[in-house]
Amino acid sequence: MKLLVTGGAGFIGSAVVRHAVRAGHSVVNLDKLTYAGSLTNVAEVAESPLYAFEQADICDRAAVDAIFAAHRPDAVMHLAAESHVDRSIDGPAAFIETNITGTYTMLEAARTYWGAEGKPGAFRFHHISTDEVFGSLGPKGMFTEDTAYDPRSPYSASKASSDHLVRAWHETYGLPVVLTNCSNNYGPYHFPEKLIPVVILKALAGAPIPIYGKGDNIRDWLYVEDHAEALLLAVERGTVGRSYNIGGENEATNLELVQKICAILDEKRPGNAPYSEQITFVADRPGHDQRYAIDPARIRAELGWRPSVTLDEGLEKTVQWFLDHEDWWRALQDRDGVGKRLGSG
Ligand SMILES: NC(=O)c1ccc[n+]([C@@H]2O[C@H](COP(=O)([O-])OP(=O)(O)OC[C@H]3O[C@@H](n4cnc5c(N)ncnc54)[C@H](O)[C@@H]3O)[C@@H](O)[C@H]2O)c1
Fold first, then answer.
1. 66 Cα–ligand 1 center, Å
2. Measuring CA to CA, which residue among 317, 307, 338, 181 is closest to residue 260?
3. Does the beta carbon of 29 sit less than 6 angstroms from any atom of ligand 1?
4. Distance between CA 273 and CA 289 in Å, rounded?
5. Which of 1, 197, 253, 261 is most buried when burial is the number of CB atoms within 10 A of its CB?
C-alpha cells in the first residue's frame, strides 16, 4: 500500500511510519514540524526508497492537494494534531485550527483526490483519535464504540469535532473512512513534556517529580509499538464507516505508574536514595478527567489484535530506551515550553 501519513514526525506517527516501512509499505510523511515533530524520530527509515517526507501544514489546502497529486496514495492515516492537554488549556486556538480546520482540509483534499481517481472502493481515510472524546469514567465501566461523546478539555473537544467531521464525510459524500480511538500511549520517542518522560527525566535530574492532585487519576496505558500495529491492521482490514477502540487493558493510577517507573530506575540507575522520595504533589489540572478505560473487544474480535506487552514490560523497555537515548531527549528540552508547568488554569 502507499500510505500518506500526517504527523509522521510525532510520537505515534513516527512509530506508524517505522512499522509501515518495515512491513514493506510506501510511506509519504506529511508533517509541519511543529515543536512536537522531529525528523530524528524517523531517521531509521529516512534513506529507504519506500519513504518520502513532505513538510507542509494540513491547513494549507494547496499544499495538501499538491501532495495528493504528486504521490497518489492508496490510503491516508491522519495523525497530525496538537496533542497536549495542558497546552490546550493555555492556548486553545492552535487546537481548533489544526485539529478541526486541519482535519476538514484533509477530508476535502482527500474527497477531491478520491473523486478524481474514480472513487476507488479500496481507498481509506483513517482518522486517528483518542478515548478522551468519551469524557471521564467513574470507578466502573469502560468506553465502547457506542459510548456517547462527552469531551471536557479544549484538546478532547477539538478531537471530538474532528471525529464528527470524518463520520459526516462518510455519510454525506461516501468517503471510505475508518476511525480509531485509543487510550494513553507511551514508549520510545515520547515527547519530553508528557507524563512518563517527565517522570523519567525529572528523576534522573534529581528534581521533584510532579504528580497532579492526589495522583488517583486512572489511565489505560498502551505501548506505542502495539498501537502502531493496531493502526496498520485497521487501515488494511477495518470495515468502512466503522470505528475501533484500542486500549492496553493496563489501568493504573498516576501514582502507581510513577512508583513503577521509580522502581525500574532504582534497579537500572541506582541513586543515593529511592527515586520515589522525589515525588511531589502539585495543584491539579483544571477539569482533570478521573478515569479512562477502553473495552477493546471489537478490534480483538474483528481484526485479531492484541497488545504484545504488559504495562510492566512496556515501562521497562521505555525506561531503558530513555537511558540509552539521552542525545535524543536532551536536544528537545530547549523547545518552547518543555519542562515548564503548563495548563494550570
Ligand atoms: N499520545 C497519546 O497518548 C494519544 C492517544 C490517543 C490518540 N492520540 C492521537 O494520535 C495522534 C498523534 O499523537 P502524538 O502523541 O503522536 O502527537 P505528537 O504531538 O507527538 O505529534 C503530532 C505531530 O503532528 C505534527 N503537526 C502538528 N500540527 C500540524 C499541522 N498543522 N500540519 C502538519 N503537521 C502537524 C507535529 O509536527 C508532530 O509531528 C493525534 O491525533 C492524537 O490526538 C494520541
1. 22
2. 317
3. no
4. 33
5. 261
What are the pLDDT digits (tens) for 153-191? Answer: 999 999 999 999 999 999 999 999 999 999 999 999 999
Phi, psi dihedral angles at 336 (to 5 degrees) = -45, 115
Res. 304: pLDDT tops 90: yes
Instruction: Assess whether the C-beta atom of 13 lies below 6 angstroms from ligand 1.
Output: yes
* CA gap 131, 62 in Å, rounded: 31
Please report the pLDDT score of residue 178 as a whole number. 98
> What distance in Å separates the CA atoms of residue 262 and residue 324, rounded to the nearest whole number?
17
Instruction: Look at the pTM and tell me if it is higher than 0.85.
Output: yes
Q: How far apart are the C-alpha atoms of 132 and 228, rounded to whole Å? A: 19
- Determine the distance from the C-alpha atom of residue 22 to the mean position of all C-alpha atoms in its chain, rounded to a whole number: 20
Q: Is it the case that residue 337 has pLDDT exceeding 80?
A: no
Question: 304 vs 123, 195, 300, CA distance in Å?
Answer: 22, 30, 5
- What are the grid coordinates assigned to 14, written together? 513516527
CB atoms within 10 A of CB 274: 14
For a substitution probing ligand 1, which of 4, 5, 11, 332 has the most ligand atoms within 8 Å of its CB? 11
**Integer-rounded Cα radius of gyration of the chain:** 19
How remote is the CA of residue 13 from the centroid of ligand 1, in Å? 7
pLDDT, tens digit, 9 for 90 and up, residues 15-25: 999 999 999 99
Percentage of the chain modeled with pLDDT above 90 = 94
Question: The cell 470505528 sits on which residue?
Answer: 243
Cα 309 to ligand 1 centroid, rounded to whole Å? 23
Q: Which residues are catalytic?
A: 131-132, 155
How far is residue 71's CA from residue 8's CA, in Å, rounded to a whole number?
16
**Which residue, 218, 203, 195, is CA-closest to 85?**
195
